[in-house]
Write a structure and sequence with these properties.
The complex is a heterodimer.
Chain A: H1 18-33, H2 38-48, H3 53-79, H4 84-97, H5 103-110, H6 113-130, H7 133-144, H8 149-164, H9 169-191, H10 195-212, H11 221-233, H12 241-266, H13 275-286, H14 293-320, H15 325-339, H16 345-351, H17 354-372, H18 375-390, H19 395-409, H20 415-433, H21 437-447, H22 459-466, H23 472-500
Helix pairs in contact in A: 1-3, 2-3, 3-4, 3-18, 4-17, 5-17, 6-11, 6-15, 6-17, 7-8, 8-9, 8-10, 8-12, 9-10, 9-13, 9-22, 10-12, 10-22, 11-17, 11-20, 11-21, 12-23, 14-15, 17-20, 18-20, 19-20, 19-21, 19-23, 20-21, 21-23
Chain B: H1 3-20, H2 22-44, H3 51-68, H4 73-96
Helix pairs in contact in B: 3-4
The chains are: A mainly alpha, B mainly alpha.
């Protein structure tokens, strides 16, 4: 499931569910009391070198606690047993109480440019929504998409996919639902019941959001934390905004085209042409008037931020002598919105989901301690030794395996949580096996957008389902075709497109 | 208990948790959908009229009572006021139930 940013769900409103909380704690305790495996002691010796036997035993114990924490967090993330930001803070508390990280350094494990980036992206999205720019996108879609149902579907797919790459899908889907509902009810009035048309339009919204999010780092906090995990491996694995877009656009374009053909076949609409409904809607939308000066200003700043993200390394860095970083640019925009009087701090407090920021800071902390404790190395090497039996421990086979695991897991837990718990492990596996971590990391992040199966798969799925025109079996029917197709497109992208771009799966000397 | 057995137990628990935990979230979305359905059904039973239709009705009613109560100006004033209040509320109710798409009067920032 994709992130439930600003959606009001996703464990932000709930209080503790003691049943799942207990099960999570049981997982933690079981792993913690387990005798420390010999392989952990060996790995601790290998990583930390010249320490006394007692100190090595302590390091191996820390590894075990972090593995216990990972298992426990997986249960908490999947079940939303605790409010999600509480899980993020719990990660720091375990480090504190078990003496794994020095108290003065715990806060530092939460700090990363990716956290600023997530905060700034959410602020940008909130300001755009405040000024109704999301609605303007919907209006443009209705003006340009023509009147044929197929064209309207394509328009909705493009109109939801592109904004979802930059604004949270939890904002995009609710804005498009009234458009689809108006088209559906106006057609209903004219020809009688048109349930298939309703399903088609609603499903197009959910799919557009799911397909668009992998296209850019701003498409979801999961993309941002993956960038954070990659940069923690070393500067050579830092991935720029434009690099991500170049890697991700293949998936968005080809899967979007696939859906533009598939959806009208799956939900065969009762009419081919929506001329009358579109005409009425265009008349209504015309009454909204032209864009105001402030709307242009907000759009201009948002565009400036996107251009700065794209050109940070190639244009800004040579001028300033250093890059601003994704987070730096995001914060510049956030402050600029306030300096120009376009928004207030109270608006940010109200419209930005601060819980999401805390949650992903926690994910960054988990990734950092997972790596620094040596637990990531131990788990990665253990898994690689198993995968070696099947000859899929490195290169493209590993990338494809990671994509499949990500695509499976995202249907069971949120996309962000999937990246948070699997990301550090698979990246360490990549490093250990000499595989390019960029391929593994981006493949995992993109694969987590394939939450097609359930009505709760993504915030957009929940929003369109709640509108009442779709049934749960409609999602299963769609996913039966879409999930394998998305995986095939993903695998083709990794093998041909990414390698064609010069991103080699095996590192030189690896 | 050996490490291997404990790890297998832990993996089973995690697998169980991941697989079965969605039920609560599904229930939440189902209840949201039920609310929408009920609201839609409730609104469909309303005597829904557009602004133009309400204004037309208002004019007809006022004309009728002006003719009927020409000699009772106080009552005419009172009933006219009631009709205007009813018409204004009817229009407002119509606007309120419309989404942003079909409600251009909704203020933009």
């Amino acid at each position: 499931m994709a992130e439930k940013e600003n959606s009001g769900g996703g464990g932000f409103e709930k209080t503790t569910d003691y049943k799942w909380f207990g099960i999570g704690l049981l997982v933690f305790i079981l792993v913690a009391i387990m005798p420390t495996p010999e392989s952990m002691l060996v790995k601790a010796q290998e990583i930390f070198g010249d320490l006394s036997q007692e100190e090595i035993a302590g390091k191996a114990f820390n590894m075990k606690i972090i593995i216990a924490l990972l298992g426990c967090c997986t249960v908490f993330f999947a079940t939303e047993a605790l409010p999600m930001p509480a899980v993020a803070l719990f990660i720091g508390l375990v480090q504190l109480f078990f003496g794994i990280t020095h108290p003065s350094k715990i806060v530092a494990t939460y700090a990363h440019d990716a956290v600023w980036f997530i905060a700034g992206s959410l602020a940008m999205g909130a300001t755009m929504v405040k000024y109704g720019l999301d609605k303007r996108i919907g209006m443009v879609v209705i003006q340009l998409s023509g009147t044929k149902v197929r064209n309207v579907v394509l328009g909705i797919l493009v109109g939801t996919a592109i904004p979802s790459a930059f604004i949270s899908e939890a904002s995009i889907a609710p804005m498009f639902v009234p458009i689809a509902m108006a088209l559906y009810t106006l057609t209903n009035k004219k020809i009688g019941a048109a349930p298939q048309l309703g399903k088609l339009l609603m499903m197009s919204i959910a799919i557009g959001c799911m397909v668009g999010a992998p296209m850019s780092p701003t498409g979801g906090a999961r993309n941002a934390i993956m960038i954070g995990f990659l940069s923690n491996l070393g500067p050579e694995y830092e991935i720029s905004f434009i690099q991500w877009m170049v890697m991700g656009c293949f998936y968005t374009v080809f899967l979007g085209l696939f859906f533009a053909f598939l959806l009208p076949m799956l939900y065969k609409p009762e009419v081919d042409d929506l001329s009358d409904a579109i005409a009425i809607l265009r008349e209504d939308l015309k009454k909204h008037g032209k864009m105001t000066q402030k709307q242009w200003l907000v759009a201009g700043i948002a565009m400036l931020m996107i251009i700065a993200w794209i050109t940070d390394k190639d244009l800004i860095a040579p001028i300033l002598g250093f890059p601003l970083g994704l987070g730096g640019i995001a914060m510049t925009g956030t402050v600029l919105f306030m300096l120009l009087g376009l928004t207030s701090w109270a608006d940010y407090e109200k419209n930005v989901s601060w819980g999401v920021i805390v949650l992903y800071a926690g994910a960054i902390s988990l990734g950092a301690v997972f790596k620094s404790s040596g637990a990531a190395k131990w788990l990665a090497d253990s898994l690689i030794s198993i995968l070696t039996t099947f000859n899929i421990e490195s290169g493209l086979p590993l990338a494809i395996l990671v994509a499949i695991i990500g695509a499976l897991m995202t249907n069971l837990m949120s996309a962000g949580a999937t990246v948070a718990v699997i990301g550090p492990v698979v990246l360490e596996m990549a490093v250990s096996s000499g595989t390019n971590p960029i391929i593994i990391g981006v493949a995992l992040a993109i694969a987590t957008s394939m939450a097609f199966w359930l009505v709760i798969g993504t915030p957009a799925s929940s929003v369109v389902y709640a509108a009442g025109l779709l049934d749960a079996k409609d999602f299963i029917r769609m996913a039966t075709f879409a999930w394998p197709a998305a995986l095939v497109i993903m695998i083709v992208m990794i093998i041909f497109y990414w390698v064609g771009l010069g991103i080699q799966p095996i590192m030189i000397g690896g | 208990m050996g490490s291997g057995i404990i790890l297998i137990v832990v993996l089973i628990i995690i697998g169980f948790a991941i697989t079965w935990s969605n039920q609560g979230q599904v229930k939440h979305v189902e209840s949201q959908r039920d609310t929408t359905d009920k609201q839609r059904e409730f609104l469909s039973k309303h005597d829904n009229r557009t602004t133009a239709q309400v204004n037309e009705e208002r004019e007809t009613l006022i004309n009728t009572i002006e003719n009927a109560l020409a000699e009772q100006p106080d009552q005419l004033k009172q009933i006219t006021s009631i009709i205007n209040d009813w018409a204004d509320m009817k229009i407002q109710a119509f606007q309120n139930r419309r989404s942003w798409v079909r409600n251009p009067d909704e203020p933009e920032a």
